[in-house]
TrEMBL record, chain A:
Originating organism: Frigidibacter albus
A Pfam family: ABC_tran
Designated name of the protein: ATP-binding cassette domain-containing protein
ABC transporter domain span: 6-240
GO molecular function, one term: ATP hydrolysis activity
Keywords, alphabetical: ATP-binding, Nucleotide-binding, Transport
PROSITE patterns: ABC_TRANSPORTER_1, ABC_TRANSPORTER_2
InterPro entries with a match to the protein in the record: AAA+_ATPase, ABC_AA/LPS_Transport, ABC_transporter-like_ATP-bd, ABC_transporter-like_CS, P-loop_NTPase
Listed GO CC annotations: plasma membrane
SUPFAM superfamilies: P-loop containing nucleoside triphosphate hydrolases
UniProtKB/TrEMBL annotation, chain B:
Annotated Leucine-binding protein domain residues: 24-357
Presence of keyword Signal: yes
Organism domain of life: Bacteria
Record-linked CDD domains: PBP1_ABC_ligand_binding-like
Alphabetical UniProt keywords: Amino-acid transport, Signal, Transport
Name of the protein in its database record: ABC transporter substrate-binding protein
Pfam families documented for this protein: Peripla_BP_6 (PF13458)
Signal peptide: 1-22
Family, per entry: Belongs to the leucine-binding protein family.
UniProtKB/TrEMBL annotation, chain C:
Record keyword Transferase present: no
Pfam families: BPD_transp_2
Molecular-function GO terms, alphabetical: transmembrane transporter activity
Transmembrane segments: 12-29, 57-83, 89-114, 135-155, 183-204, 216-243, 263-284
Listed GO CC annotations: plasma membrane
GO biological process, one term: amino acid transport
Location, primary (coarse class): membrane
Name recorded for this polypeptide: Branched-chain amino acid ABC transporter permease
Subcellular localization: Cell membrane
Membrane topology summary: Multi-pass membrane protein
Family designation: Belongs to the binding-protein-dependent transport system permease family. LivHM subfamily.
Keyword Membrane tagged: yes
TrEMBL record, chain D:
Entry keywords, A to Z: Cell membrane, Membrane, Transmembrane, Transmembrane helix
Organism: Frigidibacter albus
Keyword Transmembrane helix: yes
Localisation per UniProt entry: Cell membrane
PANTHER family linked: BRANCHED-CHAIN AMINO ACID TRANSPORT PERMEASE PROTEIN LIVM-RELATED (PTHR30482:SF1), HIGH-AFFINITY BRANCHED-CHAIN AMINO ACID TRANSPORT SYSTEM PERMEASE (PTHR30482)
CDD domains: TM_PBP1_LivM_like
Pfam families reported for this sequence: BPD_transp_2
Transmembrane portions of the chain: 6-24, 31-51, 57-79, 86-102, 130-148, 184-204, 210-229, 234-251, 263-280
GO molecular function: branched-chain amino acid transmembrane transporter activity
Top-rank lineage group of the source organism: Bacteria
Name under which the protein is recorded: Branched-chain amino acid ABC transporter permease
Membrane topology: Multi-pass membrane protein
Gene Ontology, cellular component aspect: plasma membrane
């Protein structure tokens, strides 16, 4: 138990009368990259929002790095080392890419010290292929570039657990493998990831384990390779697809 | 940015160079906008008539007298800004101002600090006495007027009265002093309501006063406030009981005739014995006096011109000593004799009892 | 007690029309338009000016209201739509600035003194021991009638249905064939008309000065926010609450507490009562009344 | 003549300090404070109350500081869960409540008649007192400018800017939004209160009219004309507005306009400048410089 980085027990979340999460329990170990999957409306994003403190839970407990964070404010959770990104990251238009990246690590060299850009910023800019737009307004980036910037910024915060909400949606295919490389590297250096994602290729490439949600409950917790053979997973996706009018995933 | 400052400085020099400096110039800070705009306009008329009279008779020191008017907007800060312009840009010999005590006091204090002679043409709060050495009042203060009013009210057989006064230096002075005199003479003030000037309705205040069931309502109000208050009192049926106004001319002109039937009150006496001023006013403006204050502003201007003439220059220290000299000697204007006490305050002035007849005020002894 | 109820209701009538207009327009254009209280003053002044030109009072007020409705549309198109593209907060600053410009216009055009319609004024008569004037009854009745008419429009007509659809989900409404621009324009027009009528009612009961808009601003906002901005008829409820708070604070006799017969709080504390109520609500129940932007994910 | 110029520049310096305070809140942190005048009022009445009760003048700034910190914390607390526009209205309300109490709490504040006769700064240095005051105000304006510049160029400043536009992103990165806002509000409030103390001892009069809402919008006009989120710009804006305001009476004299013109022109200037700039040049004369030296 003590080795668990994140432990979620009996987590529930209701909006009014509708239960978006009913009874969700899972854990993430250091060094793992866990994919959180499920059809639209299965509660993935809500789970991420509750775990990161952006939404209050209805029931259940969340512990992170040995501390109960069930009711902690967002900044306290982040201080413990759990950092998240957004599905549709929106970026300021009166800050440059470099500034946003710099802001990822708070209190860099003292709260009221003048901003100084160390070499690590340039390294990150290179790694995420953002160097050529470093002086641009962050809001002027393309959707994919914004995603990369938000991941890079989150990495600057030195997280123990990085929670990514659909990191590849809108990101150019050629950049995806770079992203996989960066994340692998980060995990290899002692980090861990919880990734909400639709792209199965990306999941297979990156994840060490997958959790599948459907209608607020976990229906599978297995290796990425086992997903296709899991009848409940197939049914959940296909069922949704049929409801939606035959549009397969 | 530096360039911008330079441009601003240059244009400001240009702008300030505009007023002509040949004449003998004095300044007047008056409430030409805001609730007292009518009172301020009446003051301005009084000054204009005085200026015309003086210049017809050859001016001051052989030069025409010129008055620069500034609007206080009924705001102390703006009054001080205006005075600053008069003193440092226009270089006036002295400043006349203002109307309400709440503004006259800070204005006067600024002028005292600058060593500029200040003539108060209207404010009657007792606090005016403490403004400082270079400040002089051309009008008697409230301790005299409220005693007169308290006696008048009691003589009419009203023992329990509600008092309404505006929440400023003048109103507070009137309310406190009237209350003290009235109690001393054996009357009872049921409640004292201090209202904020410039409201769009006084219903709440009137209802508060009504609930104490007084024999009569004693109030003092500036122009537009008084008109509204009388209208609402009429609508609320409160004019079944008598209303008595302290310094009635402040709001008489702003109150339509239908809402002030039977209103009585008192004010400083401005007709005195000299009727030529009244005639001149009516000829110039086609109506009778709008308030008591044009006469005082008129006398203040005459007094100012006389002191500059005596001083032989517009040099401020010389003007100051001339004011003290003339004040001790006494100077007769249309409001009677102006004689100043050791504090530079007018010692005596006539009061009168007035009543409303149609739209006009007539004597009511 | 009866007096208290009457005072509260008449004060609520002062606030209700403008607050309803504010709330209605907020439901479609998401920023609090401060200039709306000035539209009320414009309505009153234009009505009076028309009456002085010899137009009988009823058409004068109606014409003035329609004119203000048009003005509201012009300002909305020329100023607010452009500012909203930047930020709702910018639009709020713009509306504050417009209010100042309008105040300056009133000062130049109408002077600083309070003005009134020339109507026959009679002293109050007593009903249930309470003094009531003819004009109070008349304008109070008219206020209720206008509110009912607006409610019928909102809940009983196809146009009202479209308005509600656009306010709940503009994208969906547009997709189902509602002309959102037309509906928005119409609501802006109506808000101007209602605010102007509110101003005219106020002027009929008493008088209107150029400061009226500024004095009404916060009580009207307090009423609209209490009722939930965007919920037009919540604003009526808000107006009653605010009016009750203001009336309570000025009608209470504190004399017995301090050992005198009659001591009242200065009536100028009345607005403080409504602002304090507003602040308290914002402080302790912000989410009960509106959705907070900050906590949205 | 030059006395008047010194006066206008002195008052411009005081308004420059106020503009910096508002800029810190609205320009860099996105806090749309429409009750700035209440913070200024903490300074004005801090100085005024100390004088009224005969305490040593030096206690004025201390009282002002205490009041300003409380005011800043209270407004920040109020803003915790409010969206920008609601908070704006709330701050406007707070300022009005403050003014109403200042008008009516006669035993404490002197009521509508205010407090007069405050000691004028450097009055012993006549005739050089005006210049001495101007020098003091200019130095304090400079210090305030340095503080603001240093703040917005610091790591803390990055947090302020991030909160201004993307509060969610800031939260996700672990910024404690409430704390940063509170800190900014307290710093800005203290800066505004310093301006208030200076102004009280300059005007030598303190009254509720100093707290009227249009004063806040005048400062907004300065910030918008100069360039929101540009510290030099807003100081330039303060000077520009103040000079225009000061010279309105001369325009009136020159064209022999009616006296209502002055009051109307001042309202028209503040309102018109705000509207015109928002519509035609929302970034102001000196736009914000996005990015640090590194990016240019």
């Amino acid at each position: 138990m003590t080795t668990e980085l994140l432990a979620v027990r009996g987590l529930a979340k209701a909006f009014g009368l509708s239960n978006v999460l009913e009874d969700v329990s899972f854990s993430v170990m250091p060094g793992e990259i866990v994919g959180l999957l499920g059809p639209n409306g299965s509660g993935k994003s809500t789970a991420l929002n509750v775990i990161s403190g952006f939404l209050p839970r209805s029931a259940g407990t969340i512990t992170f790095a040995g501390r109960d964070i069930s009711d902690a404010p967002v900044h306290a959770i982040t201080d413990l080392g759990l950092v998240r990104t957004f599905q549709l990251p929106s970026m300021p238009h009166r800050m440059t890419v470099r500034e946003v990246l710099k802001a990822g690590k708070r209190d860099d060299g003292g709260r009221f010290a003048p901003v100084a850009y160390g070499p690590e910023i340039d390294v990150l800019l290179q790694e995420f292929r953002l160097a050529h737009v470093a002086g641009h307004a962050a809001s002027a980036l393309s959707g994919g570039q914004k995603k990369l910037l938000s991941v890079a910024t989150a990495l600057r915060a030195n997280p123990k657990l990085l929670c990514l909400d659909e990191p590849t949606a809108g990101v150019h295919v050629s950049l995806r493998s770079d992203l996989v490389g960066v994340l692998r590297n980060y995990v290899a250096q002692g980090g861990a990831c919880l990734v909400v994602e639709h792209d199965m290729l990306f999941i297979r490439d990156l994840c060490t384990r997958c959790i599948v949600l459907d209608r607020g409950n976990i229906i599978a917790d297995c290796l990425p390779g086992e997903l296709e053979n899991n009848p409940r997973v197939v049914e959940a996706y296909l069922g949704k697809a049929i409801e939606k009018g035959g549009m397969a995933q | 940015m530096k360039k911008m400052i330079r441009v601003l400085a240059a244009t400001s020099v240009l702008a300030t160079a505009l007023p002509a400096q040949a004449d003998v110039v004095i300044g007047a800070v008056l409430p030409l906008s805001g609730v007292n705009a009518n009172g301020g306009e009446d003051q301005r008329r009084g000054i204009e008539l005085a200026v015309a009279q003086i210049n017809e008779a050859g001016g001051v020191l052989g030069e025409p007298l010129k008055v620069i008017y500034e609007d206080s907007g009924n705001v102390p800060q703006r009054a001080i800004d205006a005075a600053r312009k008069l003193v440092s840009v226009d270089g006036v010999a002295l400043v006349i101002g203002e109307y309400s005590s709440g503004i006259t006091i800070p204005l006067g204090q600024y002028l005292v600090a600058e060593g500029v002679p200040h003539l108060n043409p209207a404010s009657t709060s007792g606090l005016v006495r403490g403004i400082g050495a270079t400040s002089f009042s051309m009008v008697g203060l409230d301790n005299v007027s409220t005693e007169f009013a308290a006696k008048d009210v009691l003589d009419r057989g009203w023992k329990r009265v509600a008092v309404l006064a505006m929440n400023n230096a003048f109103g507070q002075g009137v309310a406190n002093e009237f209350g003290a005199h009235f109690a001393q003479l054996g009357g009872e003030v049921t409640t004292t309501i201090m209202y904020t000037s410039g409201q769009t309705t006084y219903r709440r205040e009137l209802q508060q006063a009504e609930s104490t069931e007084p024999d009569a309502y004693v109030f003092t109000a500036y122009g537009a406030d008084g008109g509204l208050m009388m209208q609402e009192a009429y609508e609320l049926g409160l004019q079944e009981d008598p209303w008595y106004s302290i310094l009635i001319t402040m709001h008489n002109a702003d109150t339509p005739a239908e809402f002030k039937t039977g209103l009585i009150g008192m004010d400083v006496d401005y007709t005195a014995d000299d009727t030529s001023y009244k005639a001149a006013y009516e000829e110039a403006y086609g109506q009778s006096f709008q308030s008591a204050w044009s006469g005082y502003a008129h006398d203040t201007t005459l007094f100012a011109a006389e002191t500059i003439e005596r001083a032989g220059s517009t040099d401020r220290p010389a003007v100051l000593s001339a004011i003290a000299e003339l004040g001790a000697e006494g100077f007769t204007g249309v409001t009677g004799e102006i004689k100043l006490d050791a504090d530079g305050q007018r010692m005596w002035q006539p009061y009168q009892k007035l009543k409303v007849e149609g739209d006009a005020l007539v004597s009511h002894e | 007690m009866v007096q208290f109820i009457f005072d509260t209701l008449f004060r609520a009538a002062d606030l209700a029309l403008i607050a309803v207009a504010l709330s209605a327009v907020y439901s479609l254009i998401r920023f609090p338009n401060v200039a709306l209280v000035q539209y009320a003053v414009v309505g009153a002044f234009v009505g009076m000016a028309l009456q002085q030109q010899g137009v009988p009072i009823v058409p004068a007020v109606l014409l003035a209201s329609l004119l203000v409705g048009g003005i509201a549309q012009v300002f909305n198109a020329v100023i607010f739509q452009r500012l909203l593209r930047l930020d709702p907060a910018i639009a709020l600053i713009g509306s504050l600035a417009l209010s100042m410009v309008l105040s300056a216009g009133f000062l130049l055009g109408f002077g600083p003194a309070a003005q009134r319609f020339s109507v026959q004024v009679a002293p109050a008569t007593r009903v249930f021991g309470v003094r009531v004037t003819e004009m109070q009854v008349l304008t109070g009745g008219l206020t209720v009638a206008i509110l009912i008419a607006f409610a019928l429009l909102l809940f009983r007509t196809p146009l009202g249905r479209e308005m509600r659809a656009v306010s709940t989900n503009p994208v969906l409404a547009a997709a189902t064939g509602v002309n959102t621009a037309r509906v928005t324009g119409l609501v802006v027009f109506l808000s101007g008309v209602i605010a102007a009528l509110g101003g005219a009612m106020l002027a009929l009961r008493g008088s209107v000065s150029i400061d009226m808009g500024t004095n009404m601003l916060l009580p009207v906002f307090a009423a609209a926010i209490l009722g939930g901005l965007g919920n037009a008829f919540g604003a009526v409820f808000g107006a009653i609450v605010i009016a009750a708070a203001e009336t309570l604070i000025t009608n209470l006799n504190f004399g017995p507490i301090v050992g005198q017969d009659h001591v009242f709080l200065p009536a100028s504390y009345a607005p403080a009562a409504s602002f304090a109520l507003l602040v308290a609500v914002l402080l302790f129940r912000p989410r009960g009344i509106f959705v907070s932007e900050v906590t949205r994910v | 003549m030059s006395d008047f110029l010194i006066h206008v520049i002195s008052v411009s310096c005081i308004y420059g300090i106020l503009a910096l305070s508002l800029n810190l809140q609205a320009g860099f942190t996105g806090l749309m404070n429409f009750g700035l005048i209440a913070m200024f009022g903490c300074g004005v009445y801090g100085a005024g109350l100390v004088h009224r009760f005969g305490l040593p003048v030096a206690l004025g700034p201390a009282l002002a500081l205490i009041l300003a910190v409380l005011m800043g914390l209270f407004l920040a607390r109020l803003g915790r869960r409010l969206s920008t526009d609601y908070w704006g209205i709330a701050t406007l309300s707070i300022a009005e409540i403050a003014r109403i109490f200042a008008t009516n709490l006669e035993p404490l504040t002197g009521g509508a008649q205010g407090i007069s006769g405050l000691p004028l700064l450097f009055s012993g240095l006549r005739p050089w007192d005006g210049a001495a005051r101007l020098a003091l105000f200019a130095v304090i304006l400079g210090v305030a400018w340095l503080i603001c510049e240093r703040l917005v160029r610091s790591n803390f400043g990055l947090g302020m800017k991030l909160i201004r536009e993307e509060p969610q992103l800031a939260r996700a990165l672990g910024y404690d939004i409430d704390r940063i806002r509170s800190t900014v509000m307290v710093i800005a409030s203290v800066i505004a209160a310093v301006a208030g103390v200076l102004y009280a001892h300059y005007l030598s009069f303190v009254g509720p009219e100093l707290l009227l809402a249009p004063e806040t919008f005048l400062i907004w006009a300065m910030v918008i004309i100069g360039g929101i989120a540009n510290n030099r710009g807003v100081i330039a804006g303060a000077f520009a507005m103040q000079f225009m305001m000061a010279y309105v009476p001369f325009v009136k004299d020159y064209f022999a306009l009616p006296s209502d013109f002055v009051a109307a022109a001042r309202l028209m200037l503040s309102g018109g400048v705000i509207l015109g700039f928002l519509l035609l040049r929302p970034q102001g004369i000196f736009p914000e410089r996005v990015g640090g030296r590194h990016d240019h």
